UniProtKB/TrEMBL annotation, chains A, B:
Signal peptide: none annotated. Residues 100-433 form the Aminotransferase class I/classII large domain. This is PLP-dependent aminotransferase family protein. Its cofactor is pyridoxal 5'-phosphate. GO terms for molecular function: transaminase activity. Keywords: Aminotransferase, Pyridoxal phosphate, Transferase.
Amino acid sequence: MSETTPAAGRPRALDLTGLHPSLADPVLDAMNFLNEVVARFPDALSFAPGRPSEGSFATEDLARYLRIYTEHLERELGWSADRVRTQLFQYGRTNGIIHDLIARTLANDEGIHVAPESVVVTTGCQEAMLLVLRALFARPEDTLLVSSPCYIGATGAARLLDIAMRPVPEGPDGPDPEAVLEGVRRTRAAGGRPRALYIVPDFANPSGASMTLAARERLLEIAAQEDLLILEDNPYGFFVRVGTPRPTLKALDRERRVLHLGSFAKTALPGARVGYVVADQEVIGPAGERSLLADQLSKIKSMTTVNTSAVSQAVVGGLLIDSGCRLREANAAAIAFYRANLNTLLAELDRHFPAERRDALGVDWNRPDGGFFLVVDVPFLADAKALEHSARNFGVLWTPMSDFYLGGGGESRLRLSCSSLTPDQITEGVSRLAAFITAQAAEAGR
Amino acid sequence: MSETTPAAGRPRALDLTGLHPSLADPVLDAMNFLNEVVARFPDALSFAPGRPSEGSFATEDLARYLRIYTEHLERELGWSADRVRTQLFQYGRTNGIIHDLIARTLANDEGIHVAPESVVVTTGCQEAMLLVLRALFARPEDTLLVSSPCYIGATGAARLLDIAMRPVPEGPDGPDPEAVLEGVRRTRAAGGRPRALYIVPDFANPSGASMTLAARERLLEIAAQEDLLILEDNPYGFFVRVGTPRPTLKALDRERRVLHLGSFAKTALPGARVGYVVADQEVIGPAGERSLLADQLSKIKSMTTVNTSAVSQAVVGGLLIDSGCRLREANAAAIAFYRANLNTLLAELDRHFPAERRDALGVDWNRPDGGFFLVVDVPFLADAKALEHSARNFGVLWTPMSDFYLGGGGESRLRLSCSSLTPDQITEGVSRLAAFITAQAAEAGR
């Protein structure tokens, strides 16, 4: 492939086909397309974005959290004003400056007990994903198993690094350990090396599904048996609708097979871009030298972002200190908000589509135990064209599920997110959605 | 290679040899080693880190800049308080929210006139490097030329992405266009495709060298002739010691062959982690559809960090607004400080090593026109062992130059940085360094 060669003095253009293949990939395009549709129809009610509610956040809180953090350094740790200044101004520790506060919070909120040195503070959970994938995947045969449908931040990062992937179909209770075992075996049979599995055990994006406790234990057993690492992503775990919170895989992990990825985007504020990964695995070098996987990730981080913004870490640090390192309690109002929203969404779907009508139309949806998302099966193609029609003529936006499947699937499913709407908006939005679905179903002959 | 397989129930360890090869690379190790030595000898005077002076920065400035930025949105742009809150709290535009302020500043400071949409705001310049390398390098034969010695942030990022590199030797005036041309031809002869050249035209890290205006023009000519993109990294351009600032390659670029990478780490504050890349190249898709390279980088950024911290962008945005988008003027005190420091460093070297003594010992150094760095040639191996000896017994730290060469070189050269020392520390530091060099030279028989 040759690039367009311009006449001398003319601006040079680049051929898209000469750029990295991920740029032509529908997974990366999907996010941009969604953003663009949302922007083009600003008056549509949107079940599309998984953005958190802004709750009681006020702009002034940023300065307040900064102050809480610096006062913590000065008063509780006895730092001089100069040292505080350097901490905020200067380059700093690659793996972060609030790792200790995060470790304390994980112990309080999740019963995850790890040394602060195992925690790598990252520029959002997305960077954590990138660091982990880069460290663990070395050779072309190294394969990432992903529960399917899968969050596109995971598959997209893997594509950036040209990592081989194998989708593992989710069951109604999320990732299915026996399907994972089958995926491991098929990967090996095809000459691949199953290196790690990416999953969201609680209220997954996009499906909303959650693993049972028994499935969590069985998955850890399989991981041990098959020498598989688990990349556990946990952005929504706090937001329980029914039942009680289940232990994370990391809290159950006795063999250090789980890398636990976390985010403050949903429980604090997305704009700070602070996430983390717990990487307490031991790494043994060729001469027997020992280090933590977190230390290895640090080398990679120095080549991706050098540091996570000290200003952002200070804001999140202040927020953690303000909560006594008990973020779950500090999220009580948010938990109640999302619970009510998901209940409203389910009730409105029930109201517009009672059981008989559901069967007649070929419409159905799942009932997640928590989180931001649920999935609706519809009797028509839920693709980009349908989305545009829905936005333009019915004033309602959603996300096509097919974007979340590797290698096909979900063509007649759509994801609804209720995290950033008010109850009234949900009520009105479902009413518009019902009109859209009914019209489309009629066109499809239902 | 098989991983260590533990007995059931025992924590699992990972073999370093099974992780990505970049983790075993000396380039990535070098940074960590340096940090570790600096930490182990806290009382040594350090010419090692390229960190900026903290100048007149005060912790309270963070809140002040935040306020300036939010007041700008409310008063000048007429935004509601709610909209300002969303801007700071929420996920936002992938390519950043202060791209317009950066474009205005580049026009004022550098005579670089580009549409704000060409500017991608990144988590430090390091992320800009990663995005650009990922977008441009698609196939194994795509080769990155790097001026050698080279900043390890560039070579390290390329290694993370398994990108082939070819070093191009620097001359006394920095990157040498004819050597670049030779490198292009050799790359082609070896079956590679010379895709881009990474350089720091002004006061390079590590050499301190700068390209003449004539060399800049010739390099652009060669880039046009050979269809080569130029990745211009410009962290130190403001900090002129002698003479007047020279135009950046981007300011001279009429064919959009230059991607201009910038950083606020040296001219504002490193802790915010805000950098950018100007990517105004046009990209043409298979069906003839046109986009900006900046738009393509956006897709990649959504898989590396999603957004640059809105909090950090607001701080840097406030600082830019406060300076009237004239950062060069706002850096007048910093420019004077670094100029004085580099002059002091040169004067002290001259004092300890007058010409005769220099010749007798086999010691020499360059005289950069600005920036943070200079390079000393010494008559002994300037390696990690020598550095430890220097720190322990002479109380002075520096950086081995060999870390900056791809494929060997610089074994008897050391880099001195004078950016974060006071004049008194420089005077004392050179005195210690002279004692160290003299002792080592004596041992080497000089």
